[in-house]
Amino acid sequence: MSSDVKTTTVDSKPEVKSPPPKPAAKKTEEKPVELPAFEKSISDKIIEKFGDKVEVGFVKEDRIRINVGKEDVHNVAEFIRDGLNYDHVESVSGVDYPQDNEIEVVYHIGSYSDSSLARQILVLATRAQRETNPIPGNDATKLPTLRDVFYSVEFHEREVFEMLGVFFEGHPDNRRLLLPEDWADLPPLRKDFAIKGR
Amino acid sequence: MTNELPPGLALRKVDERIMTLNVGPQHPGSGHMRIIVQIDGDYIVACDPDPGYVHRGEEKMAEYRNYILNIPHLERPVIHDSCNVLYPYVLGVEELLGIEVPERAKYVRVIASELNRCIYIMYWLAIYGIFLGHSTMFMWPAGDRELLIDLMEKMTGARVTHAHFVPGGVRNDLPPNFEDVCLRHVNYFEKRIKEYAAVFYDNPILIARTRDTGVLSRQDAIRFGTTGSVLRASGVDYDLRKKEPYDVYDELDVHTNVMKEGDSYARSRIPWLDMLESCNIIRQALQKMPKSGSVRVKLKPNPKGKGFDTVYKRVESGRGSLGCYIVSDGKPEPYRVKLSVPSFRNLVALPNLLRGEKLGNMPSVYWSLNYWPVEADR
Q1: pLDDT digits (tens, 9 = 90+) for B170-193
Q2: pTM of this prediction?
Q3: Which helix (H) or strand (E) holds A124?
Q4: Which of A68, A116, A181, B55 has the maximum number of C-beta atoms within 10 A of its C-beta?
C-alpha cells in the first residue's frame, strides 16, 4: 500500500510548479519492537495484580489493550479506577464474532483527573457467549455490568444490549434506547442480521 | 409477549401530584428527541431522555462498504460539523493502512476542521437563542455562518456534508487566492461574533435564565464522562487538541477555555469562546501552512488493512471528544466501525441536571448541553 505512493498534481493552483519532493511514506524497518515505557508500566501493574487472569492484547503509544474473562472484568475495572486513576469510559463497543461463537464488548477508558493519563486510552475487552437464536435478556449472553464502577457506561451498555443482545447483569435500567419499541428481530449489529438488498 | 407498554406510553396511576409529560419527539422544543419528564407542579422530579427517532444505522452500513465508500455516509450524523465527524475515521484508516499524510494536507484539514467547528457552533447558538426567546440571536448566527459556509464551499465544493477528508489527505487542494479570502472572512467573522457579547452574553435576561440553573459539579462532570464544552464549563481543563494533538495541532498555539461555574450560562459561553479561539487557530494555520505541495497521497483502489487489527482514534469536535473504533479483518470493508459521539456521552448528565429544576428552565439546560440529536442516534 505504502510502496506505490505517487504525487498528485494540483490543477486548481494558478501557477503549477512541479511539486516538491514530498515526505515519502516511511517504510517501517523490522526492528525488535520497543514498547513505550509509560504504557508498559501501566500494563505491568495490571499483570502484577491479576497475574494470568488478564492478557495484554497490545501496548502501543497511548493505547493499552487488556483482555479479560467475564468473571474478572468487574475486579479489573475496579482496580483500573482505584489503583490507576482512570475515571470515565468513553465508549463501549460490541463486536460480534460468530466464528468464535462469542460477542466481544470493548470498553475504552480514559482519565480526566490525572493529567499524566490525558493521552492514554485503556482498552478493556471481555467476551460473552453467543447464542445462535438469541432471546435478548433471557439467554446465556450475559456480562456483569460496570455501571457501579464507571457511571458513564450507563447509556452505552443499554445501547450494546439492544444492538447486540448482551444483557448486563446488575445494570439498574436495562431498557431499549435507540431502536423502535416494537423491534422483534435479531439484534441489528449482529453479523447474521443482513441489510436488505445485500 | 407482555402487555407492558413502552416507557412514556405506559399508563400510570394518576397520583394527585406527579404528572408525566412527553417533550418531543417533534422538532420544536427538543430536536428529534423525546424527553419524558415527570413534574410535580412546576418542578421536574424525574427525566428520561429517549433518543432514537432518527436512527439510521450508520455503523451497520459501514460494515458493508469499503473504506472509501464509507466517507460520504459516516459524516451524516452532524452535517454542520461533517469534517470533524469524519476526522477520527480518516485518522484511524490512515493508521490501519500505514499512510503518511503530506504536510500541506494536514494544515488544510486543520483549517477545514476549525471552520466546521465555527459553522456548527453558530447553528447551535442560533437554536439556543431561539429557544430562550431571543430571536436576534437566531437571526445573527444564522446569517453570519453563511460567511464560513461560503469559505467551505470554495474549499470543498459543497455547503454542507463536504466529504473532503480522505485517507491520505484531503480531496482537493485549496482554490487560488483562498488564503486571502479566508483571512478576510475570518477577521470579519471574529469582529462580528465579538458583538454577540453585548446582545446575548451580557444580556440580563439571558443571565437571569441561565445563571445557576442545571449546575454540574466538577466531580460529576468527570464521573458522568461528559466531554467538550460541558466538561470545560465545569472546570476540567481537557481539550484533545492540546492533550492529544493530532495532525499539526502540536505546532499551533491552542488555548483551552475553561469556566468553573458549571451552570447553563458557562456551558453556553464556552462554545462562543471556542469560536474566538478557532479564529486564532485558523490565522496561525494559514500563516504556517506550506504554500505549495501535494495534498493527497494516492491510494490503491479498494485499500485493505493488514490482517486483524483494531484502532481507536479521537478528535475534538464542535461538541467534544469524538472517537472512532475500527476493527479490520484484512478485507476491503471494515469489520466493525463504532463512533463514540459526544452528544451521546453528554446525555447521561441530562437526567441529573434536570432533577429539581423548574420546567421552564428545561430548554436552557437541555440545549446548553451542546446536544445534537442526530449524532446521538447515529
Answers
A1: 988 899 889 999 999 999 999 999
A2: 0.87
A3: strand A121-129
A4: A68
What one-letter code names the amino acid at B369? L
Residue with cell 462554545: B271
Helix B264-288 with B178-194: angle, nearest 10 deg: 160
**Do A91 and B312 count as a contact with CB atoms less than 8 A apart?**
yes
CB-based contacts of A158-162 (< 8 A; 24+ apart in sequence): A159/A92, A159/B344, A160/A92, A160/A93, A160/A94, A160/A105, A161/A136, A161/A137, A162/A136, A162/A187
Tens-digit pLDDT profile for residues B285-303: 999 999 888 888 888 888 8
A110: helix, strand or coil: strand
Contact at CB, B222 and A112, closer than 8 angstroms: yes
Who among A106, A121, A195 is closest to B60 (CB)? A195
Q: What's the fold here for domain B58-346?
A: Cytochrome-c3 Hydrogenase; chain B (1.10.645)
Nearest to A13 among B292, B299, B344 (CB): B292
Comparing CB atoms, the residue among B6, B52, B314 nearest residue A178 is: B52
Domain spans of chain A, in order of start: 37-169
B319: phi then psi, degrees, rounded to nearest 5: -110, -15
Q: Which residue has the cell 466501525?
A: B337
Residue B125 near residue B271 (C-beta atoms within 8 A): yes
CATH topology of domain A37-169: Beta Polymerase; domain 2 (3.30.460)
Centre a 10 Å sphere on the Cβ of residue B184 and count the other Cβ atoms it contains.
12
Provide the shortest C-alpha distance from residue B308 to chain A (in Å): 12
Reported ipTM: the value is 0.87
Beta-carbon contacts of residue A11 (< 8 Å; ≥ 6 apart)? none
Q: What does the DSSP assignment read for B190-202?
A: HHHHHTHIIIIIT
Cα–Cα distance measured from residue B62 to residue B336, given in angstroms and rounded to the nearest whole number? 7
User: How many Cβ pairs within 8 Å bridge chains A and B?
Assistant: 143
